Amino acid sequence: MLEARQLCKSYGGRQVLFPVSFLLPPGQCLGLAGSNGSGKSTLLELLGQVRRPDSGDILFDGRSVLGDRRFLRRQLGYVPQGAALDRELTAGRQLILWQRACGIAGPLPDDILDLLGLEPLLRRPIRTLSGGMAQRVSIAMALLSRPRVLLMDEATTGLDQAYVPRLLDWLEAFLAGGGSLVWCSHHREELERLCGAVLRLEDGRVQP
């Protein structure tokens, strides 16, 4: 179970996220909704530990995982808003390096390559990929470690439309298998399809 306890964040003396707490059991999806600038991406960055909270804690199965690199690389997959990739690497090299960083040996998994149609892209430098292609690589990076928790920030925005239903089908199977998902989206139909509960933020505050 993933648990957020009273997570807060400020930048330059301005508080952008007020205390946020939730419990996310295995097999469930928590949706994040709200207008642009409402704090959704900040919350995901804290959960993915791209940024450290000013206060609060993140627990998994009852223990704090703040700063736990093994948890971050083996049990959590994070798709940020906008693919965070090394533009000078090939797509294949980027994936292999991340797989090794997660402590996983062997070739890239065929099922993930097939899901996202990546085989034709593996030898191409990331700087030559379209935004949708780069998003597919970013999603694959989040899936490589077979994580128990996925954080996805607008994962279908800019994604080639042919891959959206395939990804949503895969995520439903992931949840059915006991995975946990935090899904940030502006698309109501995606939130309704995947999420058992939706947390709404405005101006950094949870809305009733």
Summarize it.
With 208 residues, this protein is α/β, with parallel strands linked by helices. It has seven helices and ten strands. The model has no long low-confidence stretch (mean pLDDT 96).
Describe this structure in words.
With 208 residues, this protein is of the alpha/beta class. The chain is built from seven helices and ten strands. It has helices spanning 40-47, 69-74, 91-101, 110-115, 131-143, 164-176, 188-194; strands at residues 2-11, 14-24, 29-33, 55-60, 63-64, 76-79, 149-153, 180-184, 197-202, 205-206. The strands form two sheets. Strands 6-7-8-3-9-10 form a six-stranded mixed sheet, with helices on both faces. A hairpin with a 2-residue loop joins strand 4 and strand 5. The protein is globular and about 45 Å long.
**What structural class do the secondary elements suggest?**
alpha/beta
Number of helices: 7
What's the end-to-end separation, in Å?
Answer: 23 Å
Shape: globular
Work out the number of β strands: 10
Percentage of β-strand residues: 25-35%
Q: What are the segments in which pLDDT stays under 50 over at least 5 consecutive residues?
A: none
H/E element sequence:
EEEHEEHEHHHEHEHEE
The helicity comes to 25-40%
Instruction: Give the oligomeric state of the chains in this entry, treating copies of one chain as homo and distinct chains as hetero.
Output: single chain
Question: Strands across the major sheet, in which order?
Answer: 6-7-8-3-9-10
Q: In angstroms, what is the radius of gyration?
A: 17 Å
**How many strands, which pairing sense, and closed or not: the largest β-sheet?**
6 strands, mixed
